[in-house]
Amino acid sequence: MGERRFCYRCMEKYDMEQHICPHCGYDDNSPHNPMYITPGTVLHDRYMVGILISYNGEGATYIAHDISTDCKVLLREYMPINFCTRVKNKATISVNYNNLAKYKAFMAEYTELNKSLARLRNNSNINPVLDMFAENNTTYTVFEYINGEKMLDFLKDNAGELSWEQVSKLFPPLFTTIGILHNTGIIHRAISPDTIYITEKGELKLSGFCVSAVRTADAGLEYELFKGYAAPEQYSASSSSRQGSWTDVYGVCALLYRALTGCMPIDSQSRVKNDDLCEPAMLNKNIPPHVSKVIMDGMNLSGKDRIQTITELVTRLFEQPTTVKSVVSKEQRHIENTAPHERTMNYRQPVQQEQYYQPPPPPPNYYQSENNNDYDNYHYEKVSTVDRLKIPVIIGILLLAILLIISVFLMKIFVPSSEESSSSRRSSSSLSGNIVTDEQQGSLDSEENLDTEVPNFVDSFYSYVSDRYSDYFKFEVTYEYHNDIEADKIIEQDIESGTMVAQGSTVHLVVNKGKEGGDIPSYDGRSVAQYENDLKEAGIVNYSLIRSANTWGYPDTIVQLQVGGTEVKAGTYFSNKDGKKLLVYYIPKDADIQAPPTQVTDYKQTTATNNSANSTTNATTAVITTSVQKTEPPVTNPPATDPPITNPPVTNPPVTDPPPVITDPPPVITDPPPVITDPPESGGVQEW
Q1: H/E/C letters for each residue in 417-457?
Q2: Does residue 257 contact residue 299 with C-beta atoms inside 8 Å?
Q3: Which residue would you say has higher pLDDT here, 88 or 451?
Q4: What percentage of the chain's residues is helix, strand, coil (to nearest 5)?
């Protein structure tokens, strides 16, 4: 590629001499995950790959630049991490021979899915497929770059929820698109606020299409299900859990639930154990009652009892229900057409009063009129003996219960002193009994909450597992070092796969941290970021970067390596298992250089001059010594060619780690002639 012209994160142009993108702040020296394509790689002689955006059990998605059209795109690479790995420092994928058949089968499904999507590229509510090609033992799909935000972020910007009026205007085109997908045989299985984008034009775009095995638990690939939006049949790969258009109906209704109430619906897997999902109208009274009921019918846990198609769902959502007002008006017209003596009798029918929300009838009178026109003659209703005795009996029972409670309380207070020791023993045994009971009760509670199945984490990457399952489990990690296992791969797990545990349970994992060790690479001419990559490629992961107190050198360079307080050189074998760290001393980019390298060169020249001057004066040393013993030497100035003794260049060396020429000063200073070591008492200037 030569010199870089695009930022690998935002794919915007910037000055080639800079290393930090002014648009997004990306540093082009940032390390990348070696499992994925190196930024800057060109595929198909057309697409320059940028950084990794997302990944799952099917593959990885990168931002890329289409060189031919000069625009940003999204590039999807088929790469099931359970079946293959990346060749070191290449874009080529190496497939495990034992999984070759599965790899090819899922790749064929991946290819057919994206071919079907390519036929629907004119649909504005689907992220269109622009190109497909095969390379590096895999298949790549190129999608249009979406200029917009996720529906989840859009909801957060709108106080967390939308009104039914907003939903009824925004979602119908998406419903139509999902119906078209179902007619072509495509089931999305991942409709959620994370897979739907809203563009700058206010259009919804559906993304996140994957093969069915990624959207179904234990179907052969690392699955990716969106909690709260996945249908219950997606949590099992058995033949009894059939999936179809009703699976997407569940996701659509869960999305409506979230958009109208502002609350994420309860996970369907938890609902199977205890279905306590509230109706939307109970959370937001502004939701029409018929809409709330339709959403609940669309989220029925039973697939056969659920709304089956998107067409049926839309029809029921937008049909106009018969209003109460129109029914009441019709009844009023019927009353006006009846005879006067029948009008009152019809009006007082209890069923009609309840159905049309009429005021309740007056309380019944405990008398019977013998004549409709004579209200003076009436008889009291006879009260039975049981009714007379009912209230006194209830009061008596309550008083008896109160007396029993008071007596028990008094007995506990006035315990005889002679029974204190036995009572104490009984209390301690009772306390231990309570502890056992609490533990038993806790175990019973945990058994009732065993609603989460532990997947098989072995041979998966811990970074992927920790991101994907953080809502379901807590992980405790022990790191080991192995040469024949890739770094970050999980080696063991303490809970077997398939075991049902409570959500939030702790799973202990053994993860490979890297190789057992390697030869320390040379840091000559390498920046700090480049040397970190060299260390990782050499298999050295147990190291630390330390800012050097010595600023003698160039910024952004390595100046020294130490292990256990001892300096080491490049080529030395370093073991990650010894527990020691490789300390890498470096000079930061913003270091203030106190002694630039040019002073070292000048000092060498000065030292050579001093040595030559010494050699010319050695011949007269004996004469000078003899005259010093007899008479005081004359006061003369030193030769012009000699450096001033009071200010030699070595009096200001670097604080630490000086170069060899400074640590070994010239002989003229450390071993001067006898005339200097025994100066005269006059304090004059010596001559040498």
Answers
A1: HHHHHHHHHHHHHHHHHHHHHHHHHHHHHHHHCEEEECCCC
A2: yes
A3: 88
A4: 40, 20, 45
Residue 164 and residue 291 in contact, taking contact as beta carbons nearer than 8 Å: yes
- Asked whether the beta carbons of 259 and 162 are under 8 A apart, the reply is yes
d(CA 12, CA 15): 10
List all residues 6 or more positions away from 297 whose beta carbon is below 8 Å from its beta carbon: 306, 307, 316
What's the CA gap between 30 and 19, in Å, rounded?
10
Q: How far apart are CA 568 and CA 573, in angstroms?
A: 10
Q: Give the number of other Cβ atoms within 10 Å of residue 269's Cβ.
A: 20
pLDDT in tens, 389-444: 667 778 888 888 888 888 887 877 765 544 444 444 444 444 334 444 444 444 44
Contacts of 109 (CB under 8 A, 6+ apart): 211, 212, 213
| Global confidence as pTM | 0.51
pLDDT tens digits for range 284-330: 999 999 999 999 999 999 999 999 999 999 999 998 765 444 444 44
* HSE-CB of 448 using CA atoms within 13 angstroms: 6
> What's the rounded Cα separation, in Å, for the pair 184 and 187?
9
d(CA 170, CA 306): 24
